Amino acid sequence: MKFTITTTFIIFLFLTSFSAISQKRDAFKPKELYRSKELIITQITKNTFEHISFKQTNDFGNVPCNGLIVRDKNETIIFDTPINDKISEELIKWIKETLHCKINAVVPTHFHDDSAGGLKAFDDHGIPSYAYFKTIELTKENNFVVPKNSFADSLVLKVGDQQTITKFFGEGHTRDNVVGYFPAEDILFGGCLIRAANAGKGYVDDANVADWSGTVEKVKKRYPNVKIVVPGHGDYGNTELLDHTINLYKVQ
Questions:
Q1: What is the CATH number of the domain that holds 99?
Q2: Residues near 77 by Cβ (< 8 Å), separated by ≥ 6?
């Protein structure tokens, strides 16, 4: 009996270890798929891709600006445009010619040009754009290109057999900042509401600093098990980015 229990335990350990090794082997390794002078595309998971363009600023230098592409079947949805129409054209071409996918929609997560600066290129291709109603108001006030469709609180869009969820949780980086979530792969696009792990407070001229931490706390509560968090600038990570952002703007 003792021998049987010991043998069974050893077999259990072996199978558990083998399973862990297999899972580790099968884990997706991020890889850069495209690079030009103005655009970088990195595959983060099987069906998500980060696009990075660059904005030259007086205060922060040449800033990398992140967006996210999510895919299912032969369809995609894009969160945030590249910084301008020229680079957006480059991104659209890459998705169509390399991924061989249709772009169902583009969703700017706030009104700044690092989120919506390339919107006209999507309009020119007949790609629907969706934005929070305050983003619509702010783009009009600033004479920017206005997204075509608005939503009041949250938005669910279908991509292949999956869906994306875009939601406003409160003010922070701007009065209109929203986040995008892709449940199929537990990835959150935080946009400029979320700061990278080692980032400082950044640009706050349009911010509600007093509410920022509380807003991100609501995001964390809604998505406690999110695996990957992509900020508007800097390296993506996990929920530590949410904690860092909360602590960064917390009123002492």
A1: 3.60.15.10
A2: 69, 70, 103, 104, 105, 106, 107, 157, 159, 164
